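Sequence design from tokenized structure. All designs in this work follow the same two-part layout: the structure record, then the generated sequence. An example of the structure record is given first.
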């Protein structure tokens, strides 16, 4: 009768067989790392190594949505000042002003932020225009400060908090009115207008937090009158210039927002 066959015990992973001393093999990602030599200082763990919320993607998602503390639209750090320049464009009655106002309200911005509404248009003796201005004013929070000035560069420079500039079209109209550019030859007013645009662009780049509204007037036919062509050309060039240095550009069509540039 044959002797019963001895059953061989399975060795557990990471343990040495009987009679031999062996170090357990590292498991997981450590197996891919080179072994540290004796006497070599231990490597520093990165700051995000202990953050379990990174595995769930919450931190990255919150950064994309702008949940990072006060002044949540502020994205870029330059010389100790958080800066954000948002340009909102669209056609007439597209909802661009309402969208621009929403960017300076919770959850995009804190309630404590001292927002200045910069109205750049001149006063008009037009009942319809006055009704539109009154509707915009009633829609804005009561805590906002309203400043009416055609010198947008000086207003942006003096502002200490977020600014809503509404809008570049009315600002340009005021400048062309002051320079009598509608009927005068271009050589008489072009240099002065370019200087004012340069000043506005400089203040725009240096502003800590500004949302500007502009108009899309070049999608239709070429205006039949010289004044319309001057306005459309100059407003288009002004919008392109500010968009180049903007951290974000939103296009509003039929109340729908399309972000066409985002450097957050």
């Amino acid at each position: 009768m044959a002797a019963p066959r001895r059953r061989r015990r399975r060795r557990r992973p990471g343990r040495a067989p009987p009679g031999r001393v062996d170090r357990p093999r590292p498991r997981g990602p450590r197996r891919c790392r080179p072994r540290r030599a004796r006497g070599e200082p231990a490597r520093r763990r990165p700051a995000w190594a202990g953050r379990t919320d990174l595995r769930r993607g919450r931190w990255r998602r919150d950064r994309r949505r702008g949940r990072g503390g006060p002044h949540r639209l502020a994205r870029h750090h330059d010389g100790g000042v958080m800066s954000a320049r948002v340009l909102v464009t669209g056609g007439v009655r597209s909802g661009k002003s309402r969208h621009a106002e929403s960017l300076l309200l919770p959850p995009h911005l804190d309630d404590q932020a001292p927002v200045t509404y910069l109205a750049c248009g001149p006063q008009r003796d037009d009942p319809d225009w006055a009704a539109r201005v009154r509707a915009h004013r009633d829609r804005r929070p009561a805590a906002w400060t309203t400043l009416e000035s055609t010198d947008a560069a000086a207003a942006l420079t003096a502002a200490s908090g977020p600014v809503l500039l509404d809008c570049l079209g009315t600002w340009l109209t005021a400048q062309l009115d002051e320079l009598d550019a509608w009927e005068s030859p271009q050589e008489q007013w072009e240099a002065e207008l370019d200087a004012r645009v340069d000043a506005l662009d400089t203040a725009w780049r240096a502003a800590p937090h500004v949302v500007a509204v502009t108009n899309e007037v070049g999608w239709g036919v070429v205006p039949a009158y010289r004044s319309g062509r001057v306005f459309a050309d100059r407003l288009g060039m002004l919008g392109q210039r500010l968009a180049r240095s903007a951290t974000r550009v939103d296009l509003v069509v039929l109340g729908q927002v399309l972000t066409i540039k985002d450097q957050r």
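The chain has one domain: 70-262. We note this feature because it recurs in several other targets discussed in the main text.
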